[in-house]
């Protein structure tokens, strides 16, 4: 019995020692240097959002182009278009709403403000050039009545 115990301990010690041995050395790297250089996946894939080192501070910024609230069982969206505040009311509270806004200069040097809202896959684009706002749907066709915000150029 004594020999079996000693033999078992010796076998365990031998296995443990060999498991700690690094036959390839400390400087072994299974991936050759330069493998990922020029690859479009790294590092650009994980930029912005929660991968941004400043993401915590951006939580307070939120969405400044629209305010969405629920009032009396209806969804109310408040926006600023062409410097004026507008409100649209949509029936119900279970809606899918997304908004974007941006400003750019067109080739003629005019400042163009664009506000886009999509409600349940229905898109409205408010484009303001030189103080005149045009409302189109997602296909670029003009929407009469100024869309849900009833924006009319003055």
UniProtKB/TrEMBL annotation:
This is DUF2807 domain-containing protein. Keywords: Signal. The keyword Signal applies. Residues 1-19 form the signal peptide.
């Amino acid at each position: 019995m004594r020999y079996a115990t000693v033999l078992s301990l010796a076998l365990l010690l031998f296995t443990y020692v060999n498991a700690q041995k690094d036959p390839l050395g400390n400087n072994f790297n299974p991936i050759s240097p330069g493998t990922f250089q020029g690859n479009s996946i790294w590092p650009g894939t994980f930029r912005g959002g929660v991968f941004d080192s400043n993401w915590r501070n951006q939580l307070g910024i939120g969405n400044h182009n629209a305010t969405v609230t629920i009032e009396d069982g209806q969804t109310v969206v408040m926006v600023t278009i062409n410097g004026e505040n507008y409100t649209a009311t949509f029936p119900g509270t279970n809606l899918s709403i997304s908004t974007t806004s941006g400003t750019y200069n067109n080739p003629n040097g005019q400042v163009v403000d664009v506000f886009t809202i999509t409600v349940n896959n229905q898109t409205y684009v408010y484009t303001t050039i030189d103080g005149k706002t045009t409302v189109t749907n997602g296909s670029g066709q003009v929407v009469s009545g100024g869309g849900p915000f009833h924006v009319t150029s003055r």
